[in-house]
Amino acid sequence: MESLVREHFPSWLAMGVKRWISIPRFWKQVWAARRSFQRHGPSYSHPLLFIAGLPKSGTSWMESMLASYPGYKKVMPAEAIRHEQKHKGSHDYQLTESTFSQLQDALVVLKLHVSGSPHNIRLLREANVPYIVMYRDLRDVAVSHYFYVRRTPWHPEFEDYSDLDVEKGIRHFRRTLLPDFVNWMRTWRENRDREQSIELRYEDLLDDTAGEFRRVASHFSLDTSPQTIEDIVEKHSFENMSGGRTRGEQDSDSFARRGVAGDWKRHFTPALKEQFKTQAGQLLIDLGYETDHSW
Q1: Are 146 and 166 in contact (CB under 8 A)?
Q2: Each residue's pLDDT tens digit, 162-182
Q3: If DSSP states are collapsed to H, E and C, what string results for the chain?
């Protein structure tokens, strides 16, 4: 259904149709997840697996790998979709009091861009939901976001980026999203429950996919046998997910555009580099993307 909407409707109408179908699609996903729970539920310690991460930070990749375990289903709350369409993003979306109760007795992988606000942390704690928090170098996020939005006519920010070249697009990202994204990372780093969650950098997942995914699977008490991890990682390798391209190869039509770390160096001017350093420098150092303030 969504593919037909994307292909045949103008962007403003496609966004409206997407909002309209989000509610029945959500409940269809929940019912499928509940049927799976009846069959596979006793095999798992945690029926709900939660992923938090900013857009373009590898969360869809991780979501697909986790959903490879028998029975688990991807679910997207309709409220999050409506919020994204209305506010041009969901990084400031707050979980509702019914988010987790709606997903009881269901095997669910839930990936959202929500922040680590005290409200969200409380709901995760009260529902006893284990979670992972994914980070990525915000300079690469900016580049990836620019290219993704420009090739996605139904994206709520499409009109904002459609006439901008790369440099102007990254400048627009810096003015509009970078402050919020910096704060998003800080809230998770400061507020997350250390026993209930783990942190994961996208770049580390690229460098050692099997090792990092095994760490995630262990956190969720999933099967971490070498064969299981190897099979899932191979099925979701960049080459298999991008139609046979090798990592770093450009394809503007693919969701997995390049799949590399450090792509920002190809697009940042000295001025952009300095601006990101001013706004996000300490955070990039804290997360290990830079070693000191001299960069």
Answers
A1: yes
A2: 999 999 999 999 999 999 999
A3: CHHHHHHHCCHHHHHHHHHHHHHHHHHHHHHHHHHHHHHHHHHCCCCEEEEEECCCCCHHHHHHHHCCCCCCEEECCHHHHHHHHHHCCCCCCCCCCCCCHHHCCCCEEEEECCCCCHHHHHHHHHCCCCEEEEECCHHHHHHHHHHHHHCCCCCCCHHHHCCCCHHHHHHHHHHHCHHHHHHHHHHHHHHCCCCCEEEEEHHHHHHCHHHHHHHHHHHCCCCCCHHHHHHHHHHCCHHHHCCCCCCCCCCCCCCCCCCCCCHHHHCCCHHHHHHHHHHHHHHHHHCCCCCCCCC
Res. 133: pLDDT tops 60:
yes
Q: Are strands 48-53 and 73-75 parallel, antiparallel or unpaired?
A: unpaired
Mean pLDDT score of the chain, rounded to an integer? Answer: 89
- Domains of the chain (ranges, CATH numbers): 2-286 (3.40.50.300)
pLDDT score, position 22: 80
**Residue of higher predicted confidence among 109 and 295:** 109
Cα–Cα distance, 235 to 45 (Å, whole number)? 24
pTM of the model: 0.88
Contacts 24+ apart (CB under 8 A), 55-58: 55/89, 55/91, 55/113, 55/141, 55/145, 55/148, 56/136, 56/140, 56/141, 56/144, 56/145, 56/148, 57/134, 57/135, 57/136, 57/141, 57/202, 58/134, 58/136, 58/202, 58/205
In whole angstroms, what is the distance from residue 181 CA to residue 54 CA? Answer: 7
